[in-house]
Write a structure and sequence with these properties.
Distance between the termini: 35 Å
Strand content: under 5%
Order of helices and strands: HHHHHHHHH
Radius of gyration: 25 Å
Shape: elongated
């Protein structure tokens, strides 16, 4: 029985680490005490059948998986390639937005004083692209929160520059609106549901 406990313990540790969770974080997600997780991982006890079922659903494995010996759980090459491909697509979409800015700059040479604003707003469009793709593919990662922060600051900076250039009004105080918005993004990104993901 001791051997079975150890096999279960090793598999649980590997699965937990593959999701980059601490014992405390796993216990919070499963609504168990971290002492239970610790006992399971040191092989001194096994969970009940109901708990084992919850663990198998949470980790996306069969219940039998916990009692069979396995190699180290790692991201497969396919997953790594998929992530690289997604990041490449995001990068190409952002380059496309910047290229569109260059086209606008070249296409409207008569309004030279204002055409450089197309580059400024191109950065805003890049941050929107980042938000959309990160929300789809990396919904709980730092990339999403960085994109949201970039959107906040670039939108206000672009608005400020556009108003300054076109009407001469200096609305520098609008940046004070960015501060609570940025703080809200930081608080949101630190919520337990978003930490240690992806």
């Amino acid at each position: 029985m001791g051997n079975l406990n150890q096999i279960f313990a090793d598999n649980l540790i590997k699965l937990r680490k593959s999701k980059k969770l601490t014992q405390l974080e796993l216990s919070e997600k499963l609504n168990y005490s971290d002492r239970n997780i610790s006992k399971w991982e040191n092989g001194s006890s096994l969970p009940t059948c109901d708990t084992l079922r919850e663990l198998s659903i949470f980790f996306g494995v069969s219940m039998d998986y916990f009692f069979e010996e396995h190699a180290e759980v790692e991201s497969s090459n396919d997953e790594k390639e998929s992530k690289r491909l997604k990041l490449l697509i995001i990068g190409l979409a952002m380059l496309g937005a910047l290229f569109a800015s260059v086209v606008c700059f070249i296409a409207f040479p008569n309004s030279f004083h204002y055409s450089w604003l197309s580059f400024v707003w191109g950065v805003v469009i890049c941050s929107i692209i980042g938000i959309v793709f990160c929300a789809i593919w990396f919904s709980k990662s730092k990339f999403l929160f960085i994109s949201i922060s970039a959107f906040i600051w670039t939108t206000f900076a672009s608005s400020y520059l556009t108003v300054l250039v076109t009407s001469g009004s200096n609305l520098w105080f609008i940046f004070f609106v960015c501060i609570p918005l940025q703080l809200a993004v930081i608080v949101w990104s630190r919520m337990p549901i978003y930490r240690k993901q992806n």
